[in-house]
Specification:
globular, 9 helices, 2 strands, single chain, mainly alpha, two-stranded antiparallel ribbon
Length: about 220
């Protein structure tokens, strides 16, 4: 008999009857808490965090879309049904029993499924990340470009140097920009907050993720 599908509701810590908004809120909390960039690249926890982050994104991929969620729920019900045909199940056990239901964003014909998984996870988290920053006043409109508040927060994380990125502050003096830490994020005009985030030093990524996680958690507690 094939293994049951992963309990994506348990992965996100929600009930199978959770609303779409509850699922989205749970994804935000879980993704921020488990994001690999909250620890250095050589940290022993990094591989486990990466695996958990991928699982959280797989859960959100399936449960955030009503059609995929309905198919997933049907597959779970099928597996637990006492009327399931065991002989038919055992004959298909040599292959991935849930791949035909689309429970992973990866294309089964892909030559590099790990890279495709990583790309999808990054894109999915990036979209929600920008939504969270818009809610905090750190990103503008649909394009998700950084606001002054975003750069002031980043400046504080980096000891002040990154708060003077002239490309994002019309009228500010280029001479105010100081320090080598500017690095890859110097030319940020036109980029989204998530694109800028990906180019920050790892320590700043970790601190920003921690701050966002604390805000999202405080919002959830306040709403409960």
């Amino acid at each position: 008999m094939p293994d049951p599908p992963v309990d994506y509701y348990a992965v996100l810590g929600v009930s199978p009857t959770a609303s779409q908004q509850q699922i989205r809120d749970a994804y935000k909390r879980s993704a921020l808490q488990s994001h690999p960039d909250r620890v250095p690249t050589d940290h022993p926890e990094r591989p486990a965090r990466t695996k958990k982050f991928q699982l959280i994104n797989d859960a959100y991929y399936n449960l955030s879309d009503p059609t995929r969620r309905r198919d997933y729920d049907s597959a779970r019900a099928f597996h637990t049904s006492s009327n399931a045909n065991e002989e038919q199940q055992s004959s298909s056990s040599s292959s991935s029993p849930w791949s035909s239901f689309g429970f992973t964003p990866t294309n089964p014909m892909s030559e590099n499924p790990d890279a495709e998984d990583a790309h999808h996870t990054n894109a999915q988290f990036g979209s929600v990340f920008e939504e969270m920053l818009r809610e905090e006043g750190m990103a503008n409109g649909t394009e998700g470009s950084p606001t002054g508040k975003f750069w002031s927060v980043i400046g504080g994380l980096s000891g002040g140097a990154l708060g003077f990125i002239v490309a994002n502050f019309p009228g500010m003096l280029a001479g105010a920009v100081a320090g080598n830490r500017l690095g890859a994020v110097r030319d940020t005009k036109g980029k989204s907050v998530y694109a800028v985030f990906q180019e920050l030093p790892q320590g700043d990524k970790a601190r920003l993720l921690s701050q966002l996680a604390a805000k999202v958690l405080s919002h959830a507690v306040g709403a409960s």
